[in-house]
Protein backbone atom coordinates (compact mmCIF):
# COMPACT_ATOMS: atom_id res chain seq x y z
CA UNK A 1 0.00 0.00 0.00
CA UNK A 2 1.33 3.40 -0.98
CA UNK A 3 2.18 5.90 1.78
CA UNK A 4 -0.61 8.34 0.88
CA UNK A 5 -3.06 5.42 0.91
CA UNK A 6 -1.73 3.92 4.15
CA UNK A 7 -1.82 7.23 6.05
CA UNK A 8 -4.35 10.03 5.64
CA UNK A 9 -4.66 13.34 7.47
CA UNK A 10 -8.00 15.12 7.20
CA UNK A 11 -9.48 18.24 8.71
CA UNK A 12 -13.09 17.59 9.68
CA UNK A 13 -15.64 19.99 11.09
CA UNK A 14 -17.84 18.90 13.97
CA UNK A 15 -20.68 20.87 15.54
CA UNK A 16 -18.42 22.00 18.39
CA UNK A 17 -14.99 22.49 16.78
CA UNK A 18 -12.71 21.46 13.92
CA UNK A 19 -10.61 18.33 14.37
CA UNK A 20 -7.68 16.77 12.56
CA UNK A 21 -8.04 13.08 11.89
CA UNK A 22 -4.87 11.02 11.40
CA UNK A 23 -5.64 7.47 10.24
CA UNK A 24 -3.28 4.57 9.66
CA UNK A 25 -5.07 2.16 7.33
CA UNK A 26 -4.63 -1.60 7.30
CA UNK A 27 -6.41 -4.24 5.23
CA UNK A 28 -9.45 -4.67 7.51
CA UNK A 29 -8.82 -2.26 10.37
CA UNK A 30 -7.33 1.13 11.17
CA UNK A 31 -5.88 3.17 14.01
CA UNK A 32 -6.65 6.82 14.44
CA UNK A 33 -5.37 9.87 16.29
CA UNK A 34 -7.76 12.78 16.68
CA UNK A 35 -6.24 16.21 17.29
CA UNK A 36 -7.76 19.45 18.45
CA UNK A 37 -5.89 22.54 19.62
CA UNK A 38 -4.99 21.07 23.00
CA UNK A 39 -5.68 17.33 23.19
CA UNK A 40 -5.11 14.09 21.31
CA UNK A 41 -7.36 11.03 21.35
CA UNK A 42 -6.37 7.59 20.17
CA UNK A 43 -8.66 4.81 18.94
CA UNK A 44 -8.71 1.59 16.97
CA UNK A 45 -11.31 0.18 14.61
CA UNK A 46 -10.87 -3.60 14.68
CA UNK A 47 -11.75 -6.24 12.09
CA UNK A 48 -14.47 -7.55 14.44
CA UNK A 49 -16.06 -4.10 14.54
CA UNK A 50 -15.81 -3.98 10.73
CA UNK A 51 -17.64 -7.30 10.46
CA UNK A 52 -20.40 -6.20 12.85
CA UNK A 53 -21.11 -2.84 11.19
CA UNK A 54 -21.05 -4.28 7.67
CA UNK A 55 -23.64 -6.90 8.66
CA UNK A 56 -25.87 -4.32 10.36
CA UNK A 57 -25.81 -2.13 7.25
CA UNK A 58 -26.21 -5.15 4.94
CA UNK A 59 -22.96 -4.47 3.09
CA UNK A 60 -20.01 -6.63 2.26
CA UNK A 61 -16.93 -5.97 4.39
CA UNK A 62 -15.09 -4.70 1.33
CA UNK A 63 -17.84 -2.20 0.44
CA UNK A 64 -18.22 -1.01 4.03
CA UNK A 65 -14.48 -0.51 4.50
CA UNK A 66 -14.26 1.37 1.19
CA UNK A 67 -17.08 3.73 2.23
CA UNK A 68 -15.54 4.24 5.67
CA UNK A 69 -12.13 5.06 4.25
CA UNK A 70 -13.72 7.45 1.79
CA UNK A 71 -15.67 9.39 4.43
CA UNK A 72 -12.75 9.55 6.91
CA UNK A 73 -10.15 10.56 4.30
CA UNK A 74 -11.96 13.75 3.32
CA UNK A 75 -14.58 16.12 4.66
CA UNK A 76 -17.93 14.95 3.29
CA UNK A 77 -20.98 17.19 3.16
CA UNK A 78 -23.30 14.19 3.37
CA UNK A 79 -21.74 13.05 6.67
CA UNK A 80 -21.78 14.32 10.23
CA UNK A 81 -18.79 13.80 12.53
CA UNK A 82 -18.94 13.84 16.30
CA UNK A 83 -16.51 13.33 19.17
CA UNK A 84 -18.57 12.71 22.28
CA UNK A 85 -18.28 10.84 25.60
CA UNK A 86 -15.20 8.84 24.61
CA UNK A 87 -16.50 7.84 21.17
CA UNK A 88 -15.93 9.14 17.68
CA UNK A 89 -18.93 8.82 15.31
CA UNK A 90 -19.45 9.21 11.59
CA UNK A 91 -23.07 9.47 10.47
CA UNK A 92 -24.49 9.62 6.97
CA UNK A 93 -27.30 12.03 6.17
CA UNK A 94 -30.01 10.46 4.04
CA UNK A 95 -33.15 12.40 3.17
CA UNK A 96 -34.42 13.68 6.54
CA UNK A 97 -32.74 11.01 8.66
CA UNK A 98 -29.25 10.30 9.98
CA UNK A 99 -27.70 6.82 9.85
CA UNK A 100 -24.83 5.93 12.20
CA UNK A 101 -22.44 4.13 9.87
CA UNK A 102 -19.70 3.64 12.44
CA UNK A 103 -18.08 4.64 15.69
CA UNK A 104 -15.10 3.63 17.76
CA UNK A 105 -13.97 4.20 21.34
CA UNK A 106 -11.16 6.71 21.83
CA UNK A 107 -8.98 7.49 24.82
CA UNK A 108 -7.48 10.83 25.74
CA UNK A 109 -3.71 10.60 25.44
CA UNK A 110 -1.52 11.77 28.28
CA UNK A 111 0.91 14.58 27.38
CA UNK A 112 3.78 12.41 28.66
CA UNK A 113 3.03 9.61 26.21
CA UNK A 114 4.89 9.88 22.87
CA UNK A 115 2.49 10.55 20.02
CA UNK A 116 2.84 11.20 16.27
CA UNK A 117 3.71 14.77 15.44
CA UNK A 118 1.11 15.96 12.96
CA UNK A 119 3.43 18.51 11.35
CA UNK A 120 6.15 15.92 10.69
CA UNK A 121 3.61 13.53 9.18
CA UNK A 122 2.20 16.22 6.90
CA UNK A 123 5.69 17.17 5.74
CA UNK A 124 6.50 13.52 5.02
CA UNK A 125 3.25 13.10 3.07
CA UNK A 126 3.93 16.29 1.14
CA UNK A 127 7.42 15.08 0.21
CA UNK A 128 6.06 11.71 -0.85
CA UNK A 129 3.31 13.26 -2.98
CA UNK A 130 5.80 15.65 -4.61
CA UNK A 131 8.00 12.71 -5.60
CA UNK A 132 4.94 10.86 -6.86
CA UNK A 133 3.92 13.82 -9.03
CA UNK A 134 7.44 14.08 -10.45
CA UNK A 135 7.35 10.37 -11.31
CA UNK A 136 4.01 10.84 -13.05
CA UNK A 137 5.43 13.76 -15.02
CA UNK A 138 8.42 11.68 -16.15
CA UNK A 139 6.16 8.79 -17.12
CA UNK A 140 3.84 11.15 -19.00
CA UNK A 141 6.77 12.67 -20.89
CA UNK A 142 8.03 9.21 -21.84
CA UNK A 143 4.56 8.12 -22.98
CA UNK A 144 4.15 11.32 -24.98
CA UNK A 145 7.48 10.81 -26.77
CA UNK A 146 6.59 7.19 -27.51
CA UNK A 147 3.20 8.29 -28.83
CA UNK A 148 4.80 10.81 -31.19
CA UNK A 149 7.23 8.17 -32.45
CA UNK A 150 4.41 5.68 -33.05
CA UNK A 151 2.34 8.36 -34.78
CA UNK A 152 5.24 9.23 -37.09
CA UNK A 153 5.86 5.55 -37.89
CA UNK A 154 2.17 5.05 -38.61
CA UNK A 155 2.03 8.04 -40.95
CA UNK A 156 5.11 6.80 -42.82
CA UNK A 157 3.61 3.32 -43.08
CA UNK A 158 0.31 4.68 -44.44
CA UNK A 159 2.16 6.80 -47.01
CA UNK A 160 4.20 3.77 -48.09
CA UNK A 161 1.02 1.69 -48.30
CA UNK A 162 -0.72 4.29 -50.50
CA UNK A 163 2.34 4.59 -52.77
CA UNK A 164 2.58 0.81 -53.16
CA UNK A 165 -1.13 0.56 -53.95
CA UNK A 166 -0.82 3.30 -56.58
CA UNK A 167 2.21 1.60 -58.16
CA UNK A 168 0.44 -1.76 -58.19
CA UNK A 169 -2.69 -0.21 -59.69
CA UNK A 170 -0.66 1.54 -62.41
CA UNK A 171 1.10 -1.72 -63.29
CA UNK A 172 -2.22 -3.53 -63.47
CA UNK A 173 -3.73 -0.86 -65.73
CA UNK A 174 -0.66 -0.89 -67.94
CA UNK A 175 -0.84 -4.67 -68.26
CA UNK A 176 -4.57 -4.51 -68.94
CA UNK A 177 -4.10 -1.91 -71.70
CA UNK A 178 -1.35 -4.02 -73.24
CA UNK A 179 -3.56 -7.10 -73.30
CA UNK A 180 -6.50 -5.15 -74.70
CA UNK A 181 -4.28 -3.69 -77.40
CA UNK A 182 -3.17 -7.18 -78.37
CA UNK A 183 -6.76 -8.40 -78.46
CA UNK A 184 -7.82 -5.39 -80.53
CA UNK A 185 -5.02 -5.85 -83.04
CA UNK A 186 -6.16 -9.44 -83.67
CA UNK A 187 -9.86 -8.55 -83.98
CA UNK A 188 -11.49 -9.31 -87.40
CA UNK A 189 -13.59 -6.15 -87.08
CA UNK A 190 -11.00 -3.77 -88.43
CA UNK A 191 -13.61 -1.22 -89.49
CA UNK A 192 -14.44 -0.52 -85.87
CA UNK A 193 -17.87 -2.15 -86.09
CA UNK A 194 -19.32 -2.56 -82.60
CA UNK A 195 -20.36 -6.15 -81.88
CA UNK A 196 -23.18 -5.95 -79.39
CA UNK A 197 -23.18 -9.53 -78.19
CA UNK A 198 -19.44 -10.09 -78.06
CA UNK A 199 -17.66 -10.99 -74.82
CA UNK A 200 -15.76 -7.67 -74.88
CA UNK A 201 -19.04 -5.80 -75.16
CA UNK A 202 -20.24 -7.52 -72.01
CA UNK A 203 -17.16 -6.19 -70.31
CA UNK A 204 -18.00 -2.68 -71.49
CA UNK A 205 -15.03 -2.48 -73.90
CA UNK A 206 -15.35 -0.70 -77.25
CA UNK A 207 -12.87 -1.30 -80.06
CA UNK A 208 -12.05 1.50 -82.46
CA UNK A 209 -9.90 0.78 -85.51
CA UNK A 210 -8.22 3.66 -87.31
CA UNK A 211 -5.81 3.74 -90.19
CA UNK A 212 -3.01 5.11 -88.02
CA UNK A 213 -3.36 3.20 -84.73
CA UNK A 214 -5.75 1.20 -82.63
CA UNK A 215 -6.88 2.69 -79.38
CA UNK A 216 -8.83 1.21 -76.52
CA UNK A 217 -11.24 3.61 -74.84
CA-atom Rg in angstroms: 40 Å
Please give the count of helices: 5
**Spatial shape:** elongated
Helical proportion, percent range: 40-55%
What percent strand?
Answer: 25-35%
Query: SS-based structural class?
Result: alpha+beta
Poorly predicted spans: 190-200, 207-217
Strand order of the largest sheet: 1-2-3-4-7-6-5
Query: What's the order of the H and E elements?
Result: HEEEEHHEEEHHEE
Count the E strands.
9
| First-to-last CA distance | 76 Å
Q: Could you report the average pLDDT, rounded to the nearest whole number? A: 83
Largest sheet: 7 strands, antiparallel
Q: Would you spell out the secondary-structure blueprint of this structure?
A:
Elements: H1 3-6, E1 7-13, E2 18-25, E3 30-35, E4 40-45, H2 47-56, H3 61-72, E5 79-84, E6 87-94, E7 97-108, H4 118-185, H5 199-202, E8 207-209, E9 214-216
Antiparallel strand pairs: 1-2, 2-3, 3-4, 4-7, 5-6, 6-7, 8-9
How does this model look, in words?
Belongs to the XRCC4-XLF family. XRCC4 subfamily. Pfam families: XRCC4. Residues 126-153 form a coiled coil. One of its GO terms (biological process) is DNA recombination. Keywords: Coiled coil, DNA damage, DNA recombination, DNA repair, Nucleus. The protein has 217 residues and is of the alpha+beta class. 45% of the residues lie in helices and 27% in strands. The protein is built from five helices and nine strands. Strands 1-2-3-4-7-6-5 form a seven-stranded antiparallel β-sheet, sandwiched between helices. A two-stranded antiparallel ribbon has the order 8-9. Helix 2 (47-56) packs across helix 3. It is elongated and about 115 Å long. Residues 190-200 and 207-217 have low confidence and may be disordered.
Amino acid sequence: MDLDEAITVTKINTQSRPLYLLVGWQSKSFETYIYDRENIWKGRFSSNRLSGFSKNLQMSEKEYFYNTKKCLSQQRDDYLYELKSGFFYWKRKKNNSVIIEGFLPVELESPEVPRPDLTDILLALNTHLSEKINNYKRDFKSIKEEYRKCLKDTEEFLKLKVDMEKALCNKFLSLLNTKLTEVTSKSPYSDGFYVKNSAMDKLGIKIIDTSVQQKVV
